[in-house]
Structure formats: C-alpha cells, structure tokens
Amino acid sequence: GAWLVELAEVASPDEVPRATAEALGVPGTPSRALTDSIIATLRHRHALVVLDNCEHVVGGAASLAATLAEGAPDIRVLATSREPLGVREERVITVAPLDAAGAAADLFAERARAADPHFDIARCRADVEELCGRLDGVPLAIELAAARARVLTPLEITARLDERLRLLTGGRRTDAARHRTLRATVQWSYDLLRSGERTLFVRLAVFAGPFDLGAAEAVAADIELAALDVDDHLAALVDRSMLIVESGPFGRRFRMLETMRSFGAERLEATGASAAVGARHSEWCRARLAAIRRLLLGAEEVEGVARLDELWPNLRAAVDRALGRCDQALAVALVRPIVAE
User: pLDDT by residue (tens digit) across 247-260?
Assistant: First the structure.
C-alpha cells in the first residue's frame, strides 16, 4: 500500500506524527504515543509513506522518517522538501527545472489550452520555448503564465516578465494560498530562512550571472554579515533550494533562478542596502576584468575569453546599473579594461 501525508498545513514539528496517524487511520490512545501506534501499524507491512511539503516542519519529518526506518524496516519513506531531512541513509534526488524545449513547453501548452481552447502551440512554439526558458523551467511559474494565454500571446507575456512577480498570479482558487501567486510561493521559501540567510539571499540577488564563494564574500559581507558566515549561509541557501550550485571549467559556481532574483532584488531595495551592495558588485566586476585583461594580453588568451564570457551577465548588469544612475564615469571604468587601446 501507499499513504500520502500532506504536511503543508501542519503548524509545528510536533504535529507531524498526528498528521501521519490521521492519514494512516491510526487512532491515538492516552497510553500509547502516536509514533508508537504508527510503528505498530506499519511494522510488518511493505508500503510507501509519502511525506509531502516537509520544509517548514523538517525537524518533525526527519524524526518520524528516522523512527520509521528503524522500527518498520519494510517501509519506504518518500519525502518532498526544499531541503534534505538530514537523516541516516537518506538519498537526495534533486528535481531539476523542466526543459524549456520539452516538458516545459508541453506543460504551458496543456495549461494554455485549458484557459483558451483555441490555443495552438504549433503557431508559436519558439515563443513558448523562449518564455519557458525565461521562467527557468519552474512548473508553477509556467502554469501561472499559461493562465494568461486567454488575453496575452506568449511573446507578450515574455515582454512583461520584468514584472513577473506582479504578472504571474491567479492560480486555482482551490490551490493552497502559497501556490496561487508566484510571489507567495517565493515568500513561503524566504520566510523559512534564518535571519543571516535572508540577508545573504537578498544581497546575492545583485548577481545577474554565476559567481563563486569569493565573489559572494566580496559583495555580500560587511559589518552586519561577516565573511566567515557567508560560507555556512551559502550552503544553507543551496540546501533550501534558494540557490543552484554547478560545477564548471573554473570550479564551483552558484546562481539564482531569475524568479528568486527578482524577489531578492525587491527585498534588497527595501532594506536600503541596494546602493552599497551594488557598489561592491561593481568593484568586484572591475577587479575581475583587470585579471581577465591580463589573460587576454598574454599566453592564456583562450582562458581569458572563456572567463569574460562567464562574467558577461554580471558586467552587463553593473554597467546598466551605472547608466541607470547616470554614473557615466563608473560605466566607462567598468568596460575600459576590455576596450582596445
């Protein structure tokens, strides 16, 4: 058999066993703890227990999963969460974003036809794929975008994505509140972070492309957030699916999905630290360009070109920010190292 235990509405870790007992139909008794009753029910069964939406009660879910593994050896636990449970013998399977040219486009087409029966993806497949790519292949974002297909074409939706947190609303009324708007979904994850993790998250939103640990320390650290704490907080943000970590030719790199970055940028502006963090980001870009220029002018030109390509999204964002503030001197200083003399 299989049981699904929905933990999204569970208020505290202590309530996880009660929610599980209710899903299994296990009555609690004054003389026997609920967890013991659950183990007694499942001990001799071959079954799957699905613990869904564990992130806000991860401690209780982890405790229950560990107890089930020890007391009911033929039970398998499948937990969905935005961070690992951290129990012994846990196997973490990361669910990657949907492929923009495959499953993501198909999902958009299915949801768009539900909103507009006349929607024909064959006429706009390339536009849909571009839209799904801009949405990072995130299923909820794609579904909310597709709901707009009744009044907007995929190309028109894409043109409005700079305001994605405002645009992508209107989930089904029967959905949980956190799934009815993109903002609410990201807010749900953000609210689960600790104070230092929130500070680091919003400051990292200044990066428009990949960055490494040194970059995070150079840009995010200050008197409020020590550089020594950045490493631990960075790992926590990866564990909580707020950052993506990837291995590349120049080592480990971190990046933020565009939806997360949009939310983080809003929060950064609200903290009043946007100018200071932006200035440190610009200085980091300028330092990286100086190092890249030495490569370009020497025997390691090929590496220099590759590193410049990696830096380009961040450099472009820094130049755009300088021009937006009418700081032409900074904009020129940012590009001067790669301008031919």
Answer: 888 889 999 988 88
H helix and E strand count, the chain: 16, 5
At residue 99, the 3 state secondary structure works out as coil
Q: First-to-last CA distance in the chain?
A: 72
CB 239, CB 84: distance < 8 Å: yes
Best CA proximity match to 106, nearest among 142, 155, 152, 151: 142
If you write DSSP's letter for every residue of 170-206 in order, what string do you get? ---TTS-GGGSBHHHHHHHHHHTS-HHHHHHHHHHTT
Over residues 140-174, the pLDDT tens digits come to 888 888 888 888 899 988 888 777 666 666 545 44
Tens digit of each residue's pLDDT (9 = 90 or more) over 96-136: 888 999 999 999 999 999 988 999 999 999 999 999 998 88
Give the pTM: 0.74
Measured in degrees and rounded to the nearest 5, phi and psi for residue 236 equal: -65, -40
Q: Please give the Cα distance from 122 to 114 (Å, whole number).
A: 16
Q: Please, which residues bridge with residue 77 across strands?
A: 49
Return the amino acid letter for 84: P
